[in-house]
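User: Watch each token:
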Amino acid sequence: MSLALRELTLSHFRSHKKSRLELSGRPVAIHGANGAGKTSLLEAISLLSPGRGLRRATAQEMTRKTEAIGWKVSATLSRANDLHEIETWSESGAPRQVRIDGKAATQLSLGEIAPVLWLVPSMDRLWIEGAEGRRRFLDRMVLSFLPKHATAVLTYEKTMRERNRLLKDQVRDPAWYEALESQMAKSGAEISANRVKVLAQVSAAQERAETQFPAASLTLVQGDGTPQETTPPETLAQMFAHNRAADIRAGRTLVGPHRADLAAIYQEKDIPARDCSTGEQKALLISLVLSNCRALSQELGTPPLLLLDEVAAHLDAARRAALYDELCAVGAQAFMTGTGAELFTEISQRAESYEVQDHGGTSVVVPTS
């Protein structure tokens, strides 16, 4: 039941006035100078999943500045014997809309059709920056398995914002908090359970793999660094109530799944990922994405679409070859970018190739294979 992007069209998206790719389902190597518009192609594909895409940009930011009339991304996706026509667009900076097979749909519906994973250069600092980025990375992993996870996260965050307003206003009447805390506890327990479940699946896939990329021991931890397990809603509600006085003093919610973190230990050296070299941190990140891909392939019967921006830039030829071999072995349609065609020598016979050129501020996509 392989998943593949067969056609992709960008209209007035970033620097692309009109770009169209017809694809076979094989890996795709995209090269071109910095600023030519390579990452914008990956960003457009990332919008075939729920959320704000791999750049976390607003709809307005994705608009081609020259015309400023809005943008549209159209795609044909095949999965097993089904073909899906997907359109997503924004008019004049308005929130983006989605249409699937000719019918209006929600962004969450996209997750039911095509799991999409990505690795971009900004993630290279994942292990050494704040916990927020790691939570977002973890939730993207969970979303690839459980599209409804997004609903639980949105519900929790919306309810927490309402509770935080009460806290900032120094409201002390328990009656104002109880309903909010009950809703937070219900969605928060679902979030934690989803995270624990998916982290176990990805960890198991990593342990089973024979790979040249290093393995990491992964743990979901609380804000104080202790392991976070699945918590029943009743327990979570009691925790919110018990911590209410401290939260009022702080003016915000200090406990809950929004304070969780993803801890990683480089198994071979038994050291935290944050203390590894830059190269080791990158390799651990690639290993984690590959494990996510393998686990999804086993769970869903098809690997996800993979978006790997500048992934080869910091790998030597041997490790590049190993990465390409693993992508082909798992059967993923991976979209990879790099500044030069030489970065894809080891996969050139197994992939489609494109060059993105800058023609006076307009991106032009040229097939080279």
Summary: The chain has two domains: 1-114+304-369, 125-277.
